[in-house]
Amino acid sequence: MTGTRKLRPRAGLLLLGILALPAMRSMMEGDMALHMLLQFPLLLLAGWLLAQELSEQAKARLQRWNRAGIAGLLMTAMVLMFWMIPRALDMVLSDGTMEFWKFLTLVMAGMALELSWQAAGLIVRGFFLGNVLPMMMVVGWLYIEAPVRICNAYLTDDQLRAGSGLLALAMAGCAVWLLAFFVSSNKVENGDT
Amino acid sequence: MRTTAASAIILLLGIWAAWAITGGFKAITAEQARRLDISRKQPAVPVVRLIDQSGRAFRFGEWVRNENKLLIVDFIYTNCQTICRSLGTEFQQLQRDIAERGLQDRVHLLSVSFDPAHDSPAVLKEYAEHMQAMPDVWTFATVGDARELDALLRTFGVIVIPDRQGGYQHNAALIRVAPSGRLVSVADFDSSESLLNELAGS
Lengths: 193, 202
Hints:
- The complex is a heterodimer of chains A (about 190) and B (about 200).
- Chain A has about 190 residues and is mostly helical.
- Chain A is built from nine helices and no strands.
- Chain A is globular, with a radius of gyration of 18 Å.
- With about 200 residues, chain B is α+β, with helices and mostly antiparallel strands.
- Chain B is about 45% helix and about 20% strand.
- Chain B contains seven helices and nine strands; from the N terminus they run ααββαβαβαβαββββα.
- In chain B, the strands form two sheets. A seven-stranded mixed β-sheet of chain B has the order 2-1-5-4-3-8-9.
- Chain B is elongated, with a radius of gyration of 20 Å.
- The mean pLDDT of chain B is about 85.
- Classes of the chains: A mainly alpha (about 190), B alpha+beta (about 200).
- Chains A and B meet through helix 5 and helix 6 of A and helix 1 and helix 2 of B.
């Protein structure tokens, strides 16, 4: 247990380091689908892993500001929403400061997710997913249906792929959520009561 | 209590960030932001040298002021098969309207190529003939020095990216430049009819 505890934050740091390499950045950000559907989740994952470095004490202190994971999940939702705004996506490619903020906020969102998910109950999680997943679907649908290029920095084909990917990811998220819901409610029925 | 405070701060920060990036919830895309930005700031055309289809070189800003006409600008490359075609058709239509209403002295059309490597004055001349452009209404030009292209595209908010098939994708719109040499507004390429109506009426 102590082994994985130390290993995970290191893996997070390594992942972040790799993602921050200039060659890696230009490769992923050059393609809209890779940018949104691979780099974003990997940054969240890096944050998630890094958050496990925090001591129990620090976690307990943070938890006072984050009862039931409400503040943390709200932050994650806000960050995700922001980076799905087409203009924000465009600006990252032409503005180094924006790119720095993207890295920072997405990693922080991943950390917040780690620190909040366990504490969040069914209702808070439901509220979070009920916001984030439909938002992804709307943005995905917008990218697919838009008659014009929404991002000036990307090709129309890219936009179509990114849109379909977002839609698929959101639907997969819904399916997993539903499945998890049934599994957990089964457990309650069969075991704990 | 603390959670409520933290949540409120996060919510406010989130709303502020969204507000800032959308220019006050007016532009969710960079293209809308570009249009908003140009009509708000009305930047002057950059100091660049252009070369027209007859090979004549001129300073962009000076030329606009000397002509003393409202300029409608689009950006093209002559190898373009897609959107420049509709821009070309739009300009042909505009040219016809301008000539019919005798507005040559007040409006001028300018198509700027962002592909100076290929679109030499000779190529532009051929293209102009193909489009049946009237020289006193419609000028074709490109930059004299390819290094000045960036400044030009930046001011006009035009983003050009290679499309993997040897062509380019670019945001297309008609940009209006006032006789003072300032960019006034950006419009979609089907909204110029009303502009000509305005000019003819005034």
